[in-house]
Amino acid sequence: MLKNQNYTNNMSDKFNNYIEETKPLFRLLRTEAFRFIIVRYNHYSLVSRLKEDLFRIFPERPQNTIDARNTDYRLLVDSYYKAEKGFFFIENFDEILANPEIYTGLNQRRDKLALTPIALIVFISSSTEELFARQIMEKMPDLWSFRSLLLDLKVEASQMVQIENSNQSFVSDQVTITTTTTLGGSTIEEKELELDRLLKRVSEISEKELLLLKTAYEQIAKLYEDLYKHDEAIKYLSKLEDIQTGIGDKSGLGTTYNDLGFIYSQKGELNMSLEFYKKSLEIRFELNDKVALGTTYNNLGGTYNENGNSEEALSYYQKAEQMFLSTGYKHGLGITYFNIGFVYSKLNYWEESLEYLVKSEKVLTEVGDQKKRSELQKIIGNVYNSMGLAYSNKGDFNNAITYHHQAEKIRYEMGDDSGLVQTLYNIGMEWLRIKNAEKAVDYFILAGFIAKKKGLDFELKQMDWAIREIIKKHGESNFMEIGENHYKSWLQHAELEKKSSK
What is the distance between the terminal CA atoms of the chain, rounded to a whole angstrom? Predict the structure, then answer.
């Protein structure tokens, strides 16, 4: 948790810490990359203020908000994948911590979530149980290991009304000028009030004021979408389509068709979804916007992959590959290679899977060298881990161990305890398959010791079968003593390797 020493020394600072607490956040967000940021607050005005400041500082980055009280796993992840970039806010995140379907799904899809340059910012009220961070750590260990920052925002009670008033003024001014994708508050009631205000505002706008109507329709459609009123959202996107067609806004039209494709997919109308996605692709092809085309192809691939149609997913990923190759957009290309490798692994085409995972590793390393983005190093660690699993499935356990060791090195250097434990466990499994029980047990003890030391309950459950008998044989205290000796030896070796690689 981000803390400043002077907060505890000055009562005024303690309850008015917004400016100091958000300074490192704004610095962190200068680079577009995946971030997982946890924000606790003592008044909702701080949530509004943070969103507004992010819009002011990064006006080009879209914003999306999900209220965890009114969503399910499918709606949440579909909205996230659609976002593609910018800021993705989850309000009332404590509701997710109470829903195993959602938090388990998000935890398991950590790697896929991290493939997009989205700042995932979750909000938790200070009225929530004090041990919320521990809950996230225990229930979502994989995602917790990707956290970038944890903020604890406070405002003095006497200032709340003033801040609320200033927020209301700002939002009122936003109606006619902003193109951000999020409006209103976090609750259904607040969104409905904002929607009513916008609908009234639209009725007062002259039909000749096409640009004002265009902005208002965009916002109304988004609010209807947030309220899961899909038919109403489609109605206003159709109005928006008419304006964009009339003024020749082809780029906007391509985005609208893409949004319609997404909403129809939410309704389960796959054929209509595909129809609008293809319209979007036609326009983006006409505009020769190859990066946008690559992104749309990638999204289509992801949709087909989620629906279990690996062949179609592969086809669209390969089209995305061609777009990114032609533009030299390496970040998109590296992610696409990873996606292709992943689909090939699902199809049990291990040679092809390894080919694309190696390409992904190479490209992401190049991007990482240029931009020094730690998130890409985590992805590269995941690539190595996938390569190890692919070789293991081929029966080539020696090469599997080689690549798992590469993942081990990166995950250690990145401080990814969860990933490190999983990789050490994987290495133990490979030695077991080679029928070297002694080395397998050494790695199981090492993985189990680190997991116990770091409180990684999820990982412990995964390897319970492997360490249960070892603990039964030696006893809990002896197991931890042996594990600590293994860990000290391993840590010394890891540090030597780390120094030699610099």
Answer: 30
